[in-house]
Recover the amino acids of this structure.
């Protein structure tokens, strides 16, 4: 199989590394303006560096360029009949996402959105416990993710896309994983209220804090907090039901379930192997192309995640 990787930032580099480990991948074309990366592959005959997608074809493409370029890139490649793995979020807004959905359907292509937390063992374990009704009737859940933006990446944060709203920056889009795994665990809410703003003195023009409440048909409520502000990195979910409480801390790597006086703690490192989720996601995507399985996170999932980040209020 031949693959294209569009964009060679940190996530694009990760995808290239994982593609090189797959024996069935015969060629990888990396499309980037950063020609300095040519040195990294000068002795690798599998990899070709290009600066344009013109006259390039492949079995599938991984779109890992800036968020605001995702949809236009996806539309161009879909027009050439190329299957697509699009890095999250699907786009920086809903414009053209409907057009992309139609084009993918018209061309009968596979499109997956790279919400890799769906492949995390801890998330799948939580989903299994909910399916077993271990917590009884679910009353409410709290999801939180936050860390200090200047310490997040190995570059000047003011130059990152996160700092620029026009490029798809802002904590809501950056951490939309939390919205997607909420849907993966609980389904779609029927109504919601969203607040986004900038409260800090960070040198960014995107929002640094996001608060939302999502209500479900059975009156179950889920709150989501996201921020660029916490010096101590936080990422967890807490679920409270009639039969007990579940807490999963993705940073401290444990899942604690309390049912009355009984308390169990799972802290298997393999359940929190985020690196593995990227390779599992990539292999899953290839299997969808081969017709072996259905896509985990579809274009519809990508669109719905974007809708839930906006204050539209009611699911239709």
């Amino acid at each position: 199989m031949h693959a294209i990787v569009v964009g060679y930032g940190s996530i694009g580099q990760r995808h290239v590394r994982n593609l090189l480990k797959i024996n069935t991948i015969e060629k990888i074309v990396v499309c980037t303006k950063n020609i300095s990366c040519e040195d990294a592959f000068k002795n690798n005959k599998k990899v070709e560096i290009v600066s344009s997608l013109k006259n390039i074809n492949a079995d599938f493409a991984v779109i890992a360029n800036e968020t605001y370029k995702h949809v236009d890139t996806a539309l161009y490649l879909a027009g050439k009949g190329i299957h697509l793995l699009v890095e999250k979020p699907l786009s920086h807004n809903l414009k053209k996402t409907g057009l992309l959905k139609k084009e993918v359907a018209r061309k009968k292509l596979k499109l997956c959105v790279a919400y890799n937390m769906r492949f995390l063992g801890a998330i799948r374990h939580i989903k299994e416990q909910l399916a077993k009704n271990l917590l009884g009737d679910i009353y409410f859940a709290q999801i939180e993710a936050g860390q200090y933006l200047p310490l997040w990446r190995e570059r000047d944060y003011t130059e990152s896309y996160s700092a620029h709203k026009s490029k798809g920056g802002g904590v809501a889009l950056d951490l939309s994983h939390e919205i997607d795994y909420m849907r993966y665990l609980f389904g779609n809410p029927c109504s919601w209220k969203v607040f986004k703003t900038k409260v800090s003195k960070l040198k960014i023009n995107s929002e640094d804090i996001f608060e939302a409440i999502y209500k479900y048909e059975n009156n179950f409520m889920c709150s989501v907090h996201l921020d660029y502000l916490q010096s101590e990195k936080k990422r967890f979910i807490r679920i409270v039901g009639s039969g007990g409480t579940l807490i999963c801390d993705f940073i401290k790597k444990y899942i604690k379930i309390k049912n009355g006086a009984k308390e169990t703690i799972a802290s298997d490192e393999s359940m929190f192997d985020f690196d593995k989720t990227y390779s599992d996601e990539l292999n899953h995507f290839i299997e969808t192309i081969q017709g072996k399985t259905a896509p985990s996170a579809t274009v519809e999932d990508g669109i719905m995640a974007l809708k839930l980040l906006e204050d539209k209020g009611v699911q239709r």
Q: What stands out?
A: The longest strand covers residues 138-146. The first helix runs from residue 10 to 20. The mean pLDDT is 94. Helices lie at 10-20, 70-79, 97-106, 121-131, 171-174, 177-186, 274-289, 299-308.
